Amino acid sequence: MRKSGGAIALFAGVLLGLLPMPAAARPITITAMPIVNFRGAAPGQPVDELLWRGGLELNSSDPEFGGLSDITFVGAGGELAMVTDEGFFVSTRLLTDDDGAPLALAGSEITAIKDARGNDLGSAYTGDAEALDTIWRGGAPAAVRVGFENLTRVDDFDLAAGRPAGPARPVAIPDWLGAYRGNQSLESVCIATDASPIAGSTLLITEQAPRSGEDAWLLGRLDRGPVHLARANGLSPTACAFGPGGELYILERGVALFSFRMQLRRIPADQVVPGATLTGEVILSASGGEIDNMEGLAVSTGPAGETILTMISDDNFNDFERTLLLQFTVPD
User: Fold this and answer.
1) What is the pLDDT of residue 15?
2) Are 80 and 56 within 8 A, CB to CB?
3) What are the DSSP calls for 232-286, one per residue?
């Protein structure tokens, strides 16, 4: 028997009520306490090969804020996005003072990352987002690319009003990487900038290699194949980002006694090609109370054309860890 339109609508409403529905973005308040000095340096003063710019200690009473695993800028006005290891996007805008030092976050929102069907990711196993970078087209941000560990995969997400949104669009990755399970699989995803010899290619780096020689991969159409990252003693890679000149920055983290260690390496643009071993030079190192569990890295360009490196820490939703945002400038 043919159902009336009202009956069909009622049936559909009941059915939708039984299905899991994706949560909408919602505003959150993130407080920011300025960090003025780093290793004794004031803003503008050198720390190793960089200049200290300033930092923030971030806090929120929202129970879903925390576990920030990576960061990327999605606009020229300080707009940025972050991912958490419990399957959320955090979108916000970084405000700075007159000298360019980080001051506060404004317009912050949190939204659940969606699967390919548009549903929220249902568990820590499927939602452990660890890596994030922005896809730029024609000089404008068009989407973000996210790497996940445990259920290892890479997905793209559109930007709506400058913020990640919508269902996941899967990105093909090598079989050996897609089959790698655990929380030491895919940790870093970054897209080569226009000045790079491999412009547009995506670099994937694992925290630990499943087998010898299988720890990194380039996804470009022409620049495709294995890459090896020379490992630093006691440190594991947690993030990567390409600079405006095509140079590659690698953030690494480790533990010393009861505190964290970190270092930042820079690798020349012409050395980042398929089949290469990536070594580079250490341009920043720190440990102890100056840092925390540093996991995310973004590169942006300041108002005077300077290259800015922004790092974020993952507090793992622990009271004894902190969420720190630290910024440095690359000297001319």
Assistant:
1) 32
2) no
3) PTT-EEEEEEE-TTS-EEEEEEEEETTEEEEEEEEE-GGG-STTPEE--EEEEEE
The confidence score (pLDDT) of residue 23 equals 55
Q: Which pLDDT score, from 0 to 100, does residue 11 have? A: 32
pLDDT, residue 222, reads 87
Pairing of strands 129-137, 102-112: unpaired
Q: Name the CATH topology of 23-330.
A: Neuraminidase (2.120.10)
Question: H or E element: which one contains 9?
Answer: helix 5-18
**Which residues does 76 contact at the CB level (< 8 Å), separation at least 6?**
none
Residue 129's nearest CA partner among 75, 67, 77 is 67
Residue 318, number of CB atoms within 10 A of its CB: 11
CA dihedral of 312, 313, 316, 321, whole degrees rounded to 10: -140
d(CA 86, CA 72): 18
End-to-end Cα, the chain, rounded Å: 76
Q: What distance in Å separates the CA atoms of residue 164 and residue 87, rounded to the nearest whole number? A: 13
| Rounded CA separation 10/192 (Å) | 50
Measuring CA to CA, how many Å separate 292 from each of 60, 129, 196, 235, 311?
A: 17, 19, 31, 14, 11
Residue 9 pLDDT: 35
Whose tokens are 């959150």? That residue is 28
Residues in the chain: 332
What is the residue extent of each domain of the chain?
23-330
| Structure tokens that stand for 125 in this block | 């196993």
Local mean pLDDT, 10-residue blocks, the chain (332 residues): 37 35 79 98 98 98 97 96 97 97 98 96 92 95 97 97 96 95 94 96 92 86 93 94 98 90 98 96 96 98 96 95 98 92
Helix-strand-coil percent breakdown of the chain, rounded to 5?
Answer: 10, 50, 40
- The answer to whether residues 242 and 195 touch, using CB atoms and an 8 Å cutoff, is no
